[in-house]
Amino acid sequence: MILVTGGTGLLGSHLLLDLLKSGKKVRAIRRETSDTGMVKKVFSYYIDQPEELFNRIEWVCADLMDFGAMEDAVQGVDEIYHAGAVVSFYPSDHKAMLKVNIDGTANLVNLALNRNVGKFCYVSSIATMGVAENGGVSNEETYWVPSRDNSVYSISKYGAEREVWRGIEEGLNAVIVNPSFILGPGFWQDNSGLFRLVWEGLKYYTEATNVYVDVRDVSKAMTGLMDGNHFGQRFICSAAGLSYLDFFSLIAKYLGKPAPSIKVSPWMTSAAWRIEAVRSWITGSKPEITKEMAIATTQNYRFSSEKLCNALNFEFRLLEDTIREICHIFLNDQGHVLSKN
């Protein structure tokens, strides 16, 4: 039996599909408020009869912070894929994110050790990697450095990684995967929201570069590393980098929309998050832009996945192909929404 946390998310739903297609017996964690219908929707993007595989999932209502419920969920489990986490750049979510991501991971690591779970895969992030000096390329040996500019999300994932490393020292067969910005379809209001923003007429871009990876490649890397017993290590999983202008322009091309045309300078993003902070304080609403968001959109990231490629003879999908396919799914989804109205 394989346990998957975060199964109702973008990566988790694709991982569930891959595991089920390979004939694995799968149990997935969900919260009381989670929408499992989105998992079936994701399945429908790739297979003709999504219900058949979806109905093979054993769903368990549990929370990473509920040790008793998680203890029941781990019963009889041989492998764990831990993809569940809180992801937010809003100050109001920081405390909960630190608690769930770090302490929740610690709970799961402890349970895996206590129940002698054979294999454990933790989904971390390139946010836990350091930035190479002089514009160099970061790899698994480029270590995270504490800084006031580090996002609370990166701090939470770094803390969670430390719990996994602690588990490895105590005998857990665990591997850590560090994906870059994950691209995939369906979650148009959050994970896949950049496609929706371009569809709605995004006009602005920053002169910086980010790194991306297809969600299917992350899932493939995870299962490959687990099947190959590549334990006690971490692996960057990133296909390539694109400037924000090139990235948004590709999305615009395949959605049939105008590309962003207004370049935003660093001082403008700095002013924007400060203005939003004041507006948020006055209105009591969440800011549209936070300090962490502003910093992230002005950085130039460069990461190497050479270690992963060598370990698994791995080849990434081309980013343009990924973007084109996601845009095609987005347009189909939009057509279904419009046809209902």
Q: How would you characterize the overall build of this protein?
A:
46% of the residues lie in helices and 15% in strands. With 341 residues, the chain is α/β, with parallel strands linked by helices. The chain has a domain at 2-183 and 211-239 and 302-318: 3-Layer(aba) Sandwich (Rossmann fold), CATH 3.40.50. Strands 3-2-1-4-5-6-10 form a seven-stranded parallel β-sheet, with helices on both faces. It has a three-stranded mixed β-sheet with strand order 7-9-11. It has a two-stranded parallel ribbon with strand order 8-12. Helix 1 (10-21) links the parallel strand 1 (2-5) and strand 2 (26-30). The protein starts with a strand and ends with a helix. Residues 270-281 and 337-341 have low confidence and may be disordered.
Keywords:
15% strand; Rossmann fold; three-stranded mixed β-sheet; 341 residues; 12 strands; seven-stranded parallel β-sheet; 13 helices; disordered C terminus; alpha/beta
Q: How much helicity do the residues have? A: 40-55%
Unreliable stretches: 270-281, 337-341
User: Mind telling me the C-alpha Rg?
Assistant: 20 Å
Q: Calculate the terminal CA-CA distance, rounded to whole Å.
A: 43 Å
What is the CATH class name of the domain at 2-183 and 211-239 and 302-318?
A: Alpha Beta
Instruction: Please describe the biggest sheet, giving its number of strands, its sense, and whether it closes into a barrel.
Output: 7 strands, parallel
> Which strands sit side by side, in order, in the main sheet?
3-2-1-4-5-6-10
| CATH level-4 homologous superfamily of the domain at 2-183 and 211-239 and 302-318 | NAD(P)-binding Rossmann-like Domain
* Average pLDDT taken over every residue: 84
Question: What structural class do you assign from the helix and strand content?
Answer: alpha/beta
Shape: globular
